[in-house]
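Quick one:
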Amino acid sequence: MKRVISALVHLVMCMMALAILLSPLTPALAEDLALEQAEICAFSVEYGDGGGQVHKWTDPVRVYFSGNYTKEDLAFFYQFTQDVSENVPNCPPISLVNRKEDANVCFYYVRLKEMGTYISGYTEGNWGYFTFWWNAAGDINKMDIGIAYDKTNQKERNHLAMEEFIGGLGLTNDHYLDQKSILYQGWTTVQQPTDADWRMMRMLYDPRIVSGMTKEAALPVMATVQ
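Output:
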């Protein structure tokens, strides 16, 4: 009888442990994930020199599409801008423009072999790539994004458009913390940011965070953003 009871207790404990493992992340853990992502993505860069300080947009973002893009590319990105407006209310407004001279962000849908012609500092082999510039205050004020249309299908282009654009908003590096994240370092075709991704963007665009802030100064503030 004791052995039967012991086995039942063991079974119940195993079931409880499994339920905990399969349950969604608690808010505390989700918050920690977003902050861990932000520590990597907002204060380091994937390629080249830089990092260590915040860079973000303060002016409205005006986006122009160029090259061999599709109607689906435009529609998907337009919907994404609406999602940003809803989920990151302090981000400057994002709009699509019809003339390149009116834009401060340009998408170039070109062949892979042409990426270096259009995107300054391009690193060979990348199907998507962004380069951005900032002013004397450290605020981002210009960005170019290249996407290799000859190597990608629609789903892959959707993912790359979001990933590179979010990078150019100031989350300039990728991470290995969560495969579902739009900024995961490994190759994925994730089609929308996670809750932690959205929170990370809200952290960056909290009004208390300004360009030029160091990680030591910014992270305690970011930790309070929901």
